Amino acid sequence: MYCSIILLSACTLFKKKIEKPIVISYSDQSLQVIINNTASFVKYTPYSSKEKLSQVFLESFKKEGAITPNITFSNDPATADYILNLKSITITESSAMQKINDPKSPYNGQSIELNSVNCGANVEIINVKHKEEKSLECYNDKKRSEQFTNNRDLSDLINGTNKDKALYHTKLMSDSICMHLSSDVGRRVWMPITRKLEKEIKKKQ
Questions:
Q1: Are residues 35 and 45 in contact, defined by beta-carbon separation less than 8 angstroms?
Q2: Are 122 and 136 in contact (CB under 8 A)?
Q3: Number of other CB atoms surrounding residue 199 within 10 Å
Q4: How many CB atoms lie within 10 A of CB 35?
């Protein structure tokens, strides 16, 4: 569907300021949500459906667009200067081994497997008045990982254990980490979009 929003306010940090007013349409009709699992033990991606990941991405995308100045969104792509084609959101859960380097710990030299989740989004910019030109590809991603820590957890505090911080455990991420990342990337993808739009506008002047 094509959505209609008037964009009004100030830019988020790192976005490129659009100096000249332009009209943009965006379409989420072809938006794909891709989930890749390469971790030996998957922990996080099962908690988020593709529908929910798409929903939070689009909500964040529209909210961030609403604070981008000099851009008006139109329902009708024929009236737009540019079309944003929201192509894909890719969530990847992977794992890697990390070694403990702590001579005072009985786990020194041992390796712990930690999981990471990465979310990336692809958006295509099409110049409506020059469709014969190659479209512009925009990409942004964000990654979060588990960590191992020797900080005392709640059970250590209750039981009076690990006072010397020689014992390590894995600090897990939130079960909703995929949702958080999808929302963040929906906002962050405006950074490459605005940079490429401003560069394109200057080129056409």
A1: yes
A2: no
A3: 11
A4: 17
The string of pLDDT tens digits covering residues 50-95 is 999 999 999 999 999 888 889 888 888 889 999 999 999 999 999 9
> Where does the chain show beta strands of DSSP type E?
22-27, 32-37, 71-73, 82-99, 111-127, 136-145, 147-149, 169-171
Q: Is the dihedral of CA 74, 77, 83, 89 positive or negative?
A: positive
92: Cα within 13 Å, side-chain hemisphere: 11
Identify whether 153 is part of a domain: no
What is the identity of the amino acid at 46? P
Residue indicated by tokens 């014969």: 132
73 — phi, psi (to 5°)? -95, 140
157-203 pLDDT per residue, tens: 777 777 767 777 789 999 999 999 999 999 999 999 999 999 888 87
> Which residue range(s) make up the domain with 75?
22-101+117-145+175-204
* Residue 64 main-chain phi, psi, to 5 deg: -70, -40
Task: Give percent helix, percent strand, percent coil of the chain, each to the nearest 5.
Answer: 30, 35, 40
Residue keyed to tokens 């971790």: 39
Q: For the chain, how many structural domains are there in total?
A: 1
- Does 150 fall in a domain? no
What does pTM read for this prediction?
Answer: 0.85
C-beta separation of 83 from 26 below 8 A: yes
